[in-house]
Amino acid sequence: MSACRVRTPNKIRSLLKVTGLGAGVFSAYSVWRGDEKFYNNVFMPIVRLIPPETAHDLAVLGVKWKLFRPAYQDTDRLRTQFLGMTFNNPIGIAAGFDKHGEAVQGLQLIGFGFVEIGSVTPEPQPGNARPRIFRLNEDKAIVNRYGFNSEGHDVVYDRLRESREQEPPEQRVMLGINLGKNKLSLDAIADYVQGVKRFGSLADYLVINVSSPNTPGLRTLQSKSTLQTLLTEVLKARATLPTNEQRPILLKLAPDLSEEDLREIVDVIRAKACAVDGLIVSNTTIDRPPTLKSNNAGQLGGLSGPPLKHRSTAMIARVYKLTEGKIPIIGVGGIFTGEDAFEKIEAGASAVQLYTSFIFHGPPVVPKIKRELERLLEANGYATVQEAVGKGVDKYLS
Question: What SUPFAM superfamilies does UniProt report for this protein, alphabetically (predicted)?
């Protein structure tokens, strides 16, 4: 009798160990291979129990260590020509996720067609005080007020150089570097000029970010006279670099611009001295739609996710129309599905970027959006992404 009492608990403990090991192996495999149901039903709900900035830091670390590798093979239909470059697909990760250039290769393995890191400021700075990122779970949205927390040009440059040197050029993902200014800088224009000169040798394109709502005075750089001076100096700086380091320069715009502001910006970039190579539409918004349900809706900062989707799509259409489709656009804002991406492409975007959907659904959202986008392109008779660009612009102008 006593022997049975001893053996039975031992058997139960052994069974629990085997079961736990099996569950652990299954979970690890599901995470690595990007099982969509596992992420949505198990993994991401657990992640949302972790404070948002801690979860963000852990996500970057996991991507850096290449722990996530969803299985998906890009098709010819998704191959995209943009800024004179060929992307395997038009889905990129927006600046703000990998702020310091730590996880570029890991993001490529997840399936992004291009990766934009930053914003990077000339000198290191801590950004705004914590807490500075808030989930709006009921709205699948995020409010952040990071404030350009950055390790600075030198650290990010050295890290990216080492990372890029480890890969053959033909295997490297297209890399964008988003440039910002230091909060206490006395010369904002000099900060951007310095970034262009510093990263021309590493980036495939550079972004002048004057639209974050979280750095005091930054959005005033979008005013006509200031923007003229800024872009003139930035393009002059690029012209001083060796030809092979003169990268395309894009301007990132805020979604809160008035129609008059937008027209003035388009007038500026039409001038030869200010002719940037593309636009990113759009950054986060300071607006708070009345439809928001979360208690965090009132937090200060930039709002991203589905509440921004229609505003950014309409803005893409307006910019495409104002520029007569002659200036390439990267569309950003509330892309959670292939249909969301397709709408932005038909509105005038040549490529798109994700951020908030990646935070809420993890790596499986990338192949999911690509599969859905490919089906929509095929169903609408488009052989390539380029064929669809701007084809529905009038539909999205309202």
Answer: FMN-linked oxidoreductases
Is 197 domain-assigned? yes
Count the residues in the chain. 398
Cβ(206)–Cβ(249) under 8 Å? yes
CATH number at residue 152: 3.20.20.70
Out of 150, 211, 212, 350, the active site residue is 212
pLDDT tens track for 102-142: 999 999 999 999 999 999 999 999 999 999 999 999 999 99
307: nearest Cα among 328, 317, 292: 292
Domain range for 42 is 9-49
For residue 231, is it within any domain? yes
Distance CA 369, CA 345 (A): 13
Provide the number of structural domains found in the chain.
2
Task: State the Cα–Cα distance between residues 178 and 43, nearest whole angstrom.
Answer: 30
Q: What is the pLDDT of residues 234-281, one digit of tens each?
A: 999 999 999 999 999 999 999 999 999 999 999 999 999 999 999 999
For the chain, the average pLDDT equals 93
The predicted-structure confidence for 174-194, as pLDDT tens digits, reads as follows 999 999 999 999 999 999 999
Residue written as token pair 């990263």: 199
Tokens of 178: 């988003």
212 among known catalytic residues: yes
Report DSSP letters for 365-379, one per residue: HHHHHHHHHHHHHHH
Q: The pTM is what? A: 0.93
Could you tell me the two tokens for 370? 């690509």
